[in-house]
């Protein structure tokens, strides 16, 4: 049986290209440094003094440190300050915090998309049912790397002692735990994830596998309640990770809409992008989505808008289109964030009193320094939803073609392949070294084939359908909760 075949060659080739092309050609660098985004430079002390109508005396720095006292230069807050714009270039971006993590993750997601498209075309042409789907593995890895990146950002907030970031993450984590426990007790008639049938199928396969391995008396000491409690804990962790991305999304959305006040089409797209997680939530609410579209009431009769058999494929397409829309509006949100520097200066002009020049420089510079953090907070939730959906399609045996009836895998008969017997005495003595190497390679391939066969027999498409459907829905739910709270915070609480 072929282990991975052509897919393995393409996967290794993509990994090699990614490693060699990253310093020269990077989609992540192009997204930030193509010249379409511009930042604001902080004013120098000389410019601030000129606007304040005075000059910096000579030996200023030495005078400020006399007697061990710090005497910062201060200027009136209502000075006529206008920040200078400059396009974001590669030199500026390389010094930003988390830039390397951002570049690696985005480029990996781009190559994962390419490999997934290749495997989809490959499976549509060749009957590769016995091969491992490499595209699905890359998609799952992208989801895991995205969660790891969010964990790194959250750990940065936990180490911070300046504000209440740690409390915000913990609060959203506990809120997510409560919501997840409520969601997991909802019947499948309302939320059609397929978790119940998926986990039942998994437990049945594990018991069959254990018996074939000689553990006749072995049984799984896990109840459905234990599984759901563990899944709720994972949901709480994901909710804590997505707390600040949702709050940041709310702020950049409001600023982007205001920035494009003279472009109604862009405003409509921005509102559609912001509401797209809500649409993802509705797609798994069976009475609103599947049942309504399959039997839409029309007077005393019912009309079938979308057949139930085609609904799964259409749902996948809708989620992918919504993710592409959000990715296409990335630069509007990033520019809205960079405009916070000028927005803060305009707010400062309305205040009375004086402010230290170094505080003005620090405020303006800090906005640009966190550009890659904001970019990750915007992109990673989209990538999680997108690649969870792609994993759902690939591992759940769904089809992109509307009207194709998919039948998920059920409990299979576990027949473990055996490695080919080793016959050491067949070749000449001069070729013993080559023979041993070939035998080792064949034995390794046989063991890997056996492991993948066992894994595919235990983790069937029925399980993957339930797991990745719930994961996709839950990431969207966390974004809805945190972003709506962010809208309320920025629109009402910040105004008071």
From TrEMBL:
Pfam families: Tmemb_161AB. This is Transmembrane protein 161A. It comes from Salarias fasciatus. The chain crosses the membrane at residues 135-155, 167-186, 225-244, 265-285, 367-390, 467-489. InterPro entries: Transmembrane_161A/B. Its main location: membrane. GO terms for cellular component: membrane. The keyword Signal applies. It is a multi-pass membrane protein. The keyword Signal applies. Keywords: Glycoprotein, Membrane, Signal, Transmembrane, Transmembrane helix. Belongs to the TMEM161 family. Residues 1-28 form the signal peptide. It is found in: Membrane.
């Amino acid at each position: 049986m072929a282990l991975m075949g052509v897919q393995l060659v393409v996967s290794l080739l993509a990994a090699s290209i990614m490693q060699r092309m990253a310093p020269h050609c990077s989609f992540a660098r192009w997204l930030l440094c193509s010249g379409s985004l511009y930042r604001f430079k902080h004013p120098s002390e000389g410019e601030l003094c000129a606007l304040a109508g005075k000059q910096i005396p000579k030996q200023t720095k030495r005078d400020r440190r006399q007697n061990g006292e710090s005497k910062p230069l201060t200027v009136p807050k209502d000075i006529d300050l206008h920040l200078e714009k400059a396009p974001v270039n590669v030199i500026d971006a390389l010094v930003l915090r988390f830039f390397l993590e951002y570049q690696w993750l985005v480029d990996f997601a781009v190559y994962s998309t390419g490999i997934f498209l290749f495997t989809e075309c490959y499976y549509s042409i060749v009957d590769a049912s016995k091969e491992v789907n490499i595209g699905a593995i890359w998609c799952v890895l992208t989801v895991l790397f995205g969660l790891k990146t969010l964990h790194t950002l959250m750990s940065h907030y936990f180490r911070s002692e300046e504000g209440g970031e740690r409390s915000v993450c913990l609060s959203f984590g506990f809120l997510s735990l409560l919501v997840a426990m409520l969601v997991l007790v909802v019947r499948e008639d309302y939320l059609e994830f397929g978790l119940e049938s998926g986990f039942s199928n998994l437990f049945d396969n594990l018991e069959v596998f254990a018996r074939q391995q000689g553990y006749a008396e072995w049984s799984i000491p896990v109840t459905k309640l234990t599984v759901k409690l563990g899944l709720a804990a994972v949901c709480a962790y994901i909710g804590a990770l997505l707390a600040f991305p949702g709050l940041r999304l709310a702020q950049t959305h409001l600023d982007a809409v205001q920035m494009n006040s003279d472009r109604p089409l862009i405003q409509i797209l921005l509102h559609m992008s912001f509401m797209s997680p809500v649409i993802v939530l509705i797609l798994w609410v069976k009475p609103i989505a599947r049942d309504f579209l399959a039997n839409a009431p029309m007077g005393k009769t019912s009309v079938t808008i979308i057949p139930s058999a085609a609904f799964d494929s259409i749902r996948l397409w809708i989620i992918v289109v919504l993710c592409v829309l959000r990715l296409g509006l990335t630069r509007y949100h990033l520019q809205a964030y960079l405009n916070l520097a000028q927005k803060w200066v305009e707010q400062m002009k309305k205040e009375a009193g004086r402010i230290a020049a170094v505080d003005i420089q620090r405020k303006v510079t800090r906005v640009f320094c966190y550009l890659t953090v904001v970019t990750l907070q915007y992109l990673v939730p989209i990538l999680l939803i997108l690649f969870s959906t792609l994993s759902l399609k690939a591992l759940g045996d769904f089809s992109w073609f509307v009207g194709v009836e998919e039948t998920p895998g059920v409990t299979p008969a576990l027949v473990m392949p055996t490695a080919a017997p080793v016959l050491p005495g067949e070749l000449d003595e001069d070729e013993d070294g080559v023979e041993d190497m070939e035998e080792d390679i064949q034995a390794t391939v046989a063991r890997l084939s056996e492991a993948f066969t066992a894994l595919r027999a235990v983790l069937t498409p029925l399980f993957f359908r339930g797991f990745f459907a719930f994961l996709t829905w839950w990431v969207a739910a966390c974004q809805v909760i945190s972003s709506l709270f962010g809208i309320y915070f920025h629109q009402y609480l910040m105004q008071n």
